[in-house]
Amino acid sequence: MTVKAVIFDCDGVVVDSEGLTFDLLLDDFATHGLTVSRETLARNFIGGTMADVAHRAIAAGARLPATWVPDFYARLYAHLAKGTPLIDGILGVLDALDAAGIPYAIGSNGSDAKMQVTLGQHPSLIARFGGHLYSGQTLGRPKPAPDLYLHTARQLGVPPAQCVVIEDSPTGARAARAAGIRCLGYAAETPAHRLVAEGAEPFTRMADLPALLGL
């Protein structure tokens, strides 16, 4: 298949924000009566929206206040604003896509505000996406629903079957599969077998991605 467009997840794929988010969640859960390991957090809580995280945490025994989601988002944005690095190798990937004339976009379950906080720290990078930053929360249909990726493909003007999604979560890989889009699973943090189970083709070095895309 000739790749005509690439759709990136944001957190953990373009910006290295997952670890910072994990740190804050682990402390917050412990404060509210739920102690979990980092591995359990990654396996059972990450990949959806913060509302999803709250529901899962409450089901597991956390005593979260009714205002936890907006309160946590406010603290998370302030935390990420202190400095969110890029994923190592992502700029080289964008260079290769630009050289090949292949358009690209971001489709994230994070809010538009969160993307502005994290990506906004890297003005030259955010400009390269040309406004193609799409949020499942804004759309009202976050992953694992396929809608976000189908919407993003339409905005790029490319049929889903000619797109590739780059994901690091099983939830996102499931959304890509439901959308009929090939998914390459960035398994730097997520165990590769969990991405494979959702139909993704795993890789562990972002520097390898251009070759996987046939560039």
Number of domains: 2
Describe the sheet with the most strands. 6 strands, parallel
- CATH fold descriptor of the largest domain: Rossmann fold
The first-to-last residue Cα distance is 12 Å
Q: In what range is the share of β-strand residues?
A: 5-15%
Helical segment count: 12
State the CATH superfamily name of the largest domain.
Answer: HAD superfamily/HAD-like
> How many DSSP E strands?
6
Helix content: 40-55%
CATH class category name of the largest domain: Alpha Beta
What is the CA-atom radius of gyration, in angstroms? 17 Å
CATH architecture classification of the largest domain: 3-Layer(aba) Sandwich
- Residue-averaged pLDDT: 93
H/E element string?
EHHHHHEHHEHHEHEHEH
* Arrangement of strands in the largest sheet: 3-2-1-4-5-6
General form: globular
Unreliable residue runs: none
| Secondary structural class | alpha/beta
Architecture overview:
By secondary structure, the chain is of the alpha/beta class. It folds into 2 domains: 5-16 and 84-212, Rossmann fold (3-Layer(aba) Sandwich), CATH 3.40.50; 18-81, Orthogonal Bundle (DNA polymerase, domain 1). It is built from 12 helices and 6 strands. The chain has helices at residues 18-31, 38-44, 50-59, 68-81, 90-100, 112-118, 123-128, 136-139, 147-156, 170-179, 192-196, 209-212, and strands at 5-8, 104-108, 133-135, 163-167, 182-186, 201-203. The protein has a 6-stranded parallel sheet. Strand 5 (182-186), helix 11 (192-196) and strand 6 form a beta-alpha-beta unit. It is globular. The two termini are 12 Å apart.
